[in-house]
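[Discussion] Sanity-checking designs against the backbone

I'm trying to build intuition for which residues belong where. Below is a structure token string of 186 positions. I'd appreciate it if someone posts a full sequence so I can compare it with mine line by line.
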């Protein structure tokens, strides 16, 4: 989270086809653009042995903190990124009645990065229907791996978790959080 806030920049969401999000991120980073891909550890069997692998939490999505001009250049004028496209906001229309590229507000993106940067194996990308909210209160986690994460308390997969919303994309839930580690934000 060591990027400088800039009013000319926004968090753009790009879609990289065929799971090439790491390749796209490497290209963008080499070009001087700050990117983020949410990842988590998963355990899988490989050649008969249990191994721990790093896996993308939201497949095919790359978040890039850049200007509108640079984002358009990446998608439209960079042959090396021919597999990269915008993730569009299907709930808005621009002046030409087309869906604009989706951008994530800075504070929301900061909460998302803080919740997912530890690559915890219990992170889940969930749908609204999988969450059973206890109340609409915003909370902050006060102890543990997710200390400082802000979101709403929900019951997901039978456990109490803190859920972080990501505009027009979905929800990310933390691992189990005991009630003693949660404090309501006023």
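Best answer:
Here's mine. Compare freely.
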């Amino acid at each position: 989270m060591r990027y400088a806030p800039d009013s000319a920049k926004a968090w753009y969401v790009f879609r990289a086809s065929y799971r090439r999000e790491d390749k796209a991120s490497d290209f963008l980073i080499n070009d001087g653009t700050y990117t983020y891909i949410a990842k988590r550890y998963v355990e899988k069997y490989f050649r008969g042995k249990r191994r721990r692998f790093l896996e993308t939490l939201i497949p095919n999505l790359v978040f890039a903190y850049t200007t509108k001009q640079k984002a358009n250049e990446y998608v439209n004028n960079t042959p090396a990124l021919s597999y990269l496209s915008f993730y569009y906001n299907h709930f808005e229309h621009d002046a030409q009645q087309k869906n604009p590229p989706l951008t994530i507000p800075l504070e929301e993106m900061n909460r998302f990065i803080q919740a997912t940067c530890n690559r915890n194996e219990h992170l889940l990308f969930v749908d609204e229907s999988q969450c059973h909210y206890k109340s609409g209160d915003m909370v902050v986690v006060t102890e543990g791996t997710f200390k400082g994460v802000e979101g709403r308390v929900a019951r997901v997969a039978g456990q109490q978790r803190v859920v972080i919303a990501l505009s027009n994309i979905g929800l990310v839930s933390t691992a189990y959080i005991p009630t003693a580690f949660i404090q309501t934000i006023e």
